[in-house]
Input
Amino acid sequence: MVDDRLPMRSDRAGTPARPGPRLPARSAGGTGAGEVHSAGRLNFTESVGTREEVWEQLGPKIQERVNAKIGQVVEWWATNHSGRNSAVVLGTEAFVTVEPTINAAGKPAHEIRALRLDGATFRRATVTGAPPPRAAAPAARAVGPGSPPSAPTSALSRRLGPSMTGFLGHLPGRAQQLLQEPFLDDHTDLWHDCYFFQPGSGHGMGGGTLRVWCYLANRRYVTFAAGTGHGYREDTGPRSWELTCWRAEVTGNPR
Output
C-alpha cells in the first residue's frame, strides 16, 4: 500500500497526489489574470537539514496532528532557520502551516493552522518556459527583511509586499497569474510565504538549479506552486522553469 502521509521518519518520502482536473488556460472570470511582477534579488538563507530531517525534528506529536488533517500529500516544504523549525503542507483534504511561536509560559512552541479544502475544487496546471523579460532598472529589489520600499501598482501587490512580489517576479507570467487570480477582488486576510534553495554548490557555466515552493491563501482559496528553475544566475534569475500550480477552495473554518 502506498504511504501518502508525510514521513514519520526522514527515510520515508511519501508519494505526492495529483488531484483534480487541470486549470483552464485562461481565467473563467472577468476580473483579469493578475499582475506580472518584476523580479527581486533572492536573499538565500541556509536551512539546517533537508526537509525530511527538519520534518522529523518537529517530533511525533506535531507530525501526527498534521497527518490527521491533510489526507494525501500533494506538496510540502520544511525548513529550519535560527534554530526554529517550520513546515507548509498542501494535502488533498487540508492546507496546513506549522509556525514557531512562544506559548503562554514563554517557551518555544508551534502554531498549527489548517484550512480544510473541498477536494472537488482541486485544479492543477503545469507551467514551463522562461520568466518574463527583466525590465531595465537601477538595481534589483532585495527579497527579505529590511528590503527597500517599492511602488506596487495594485492593491494585491501592496498586500503581498516587496519580498513576495520580488519572488513571484522570477516565475513565468502564467504561474504568477494562476497564483494571484483568486485574490484580486478579495480584501480579507491573506497569508503567503515562499521557500527557495539551490541544491549543491557548483553552478557551472550554464548556471545553477533553483528549487522553489510558495503559496497564497485566505479563508476562501489556496494557491500553491512548486518546481525547478534551470540556469539560475543571481543577475539574471532562472533561464527556464518547470512548475506545477495548484488551486483549491476552502470549506468551513480554519482549524
About this structure: The chain is about 15% helix and 35% strand. The first helix runs from residue 51 to 57.
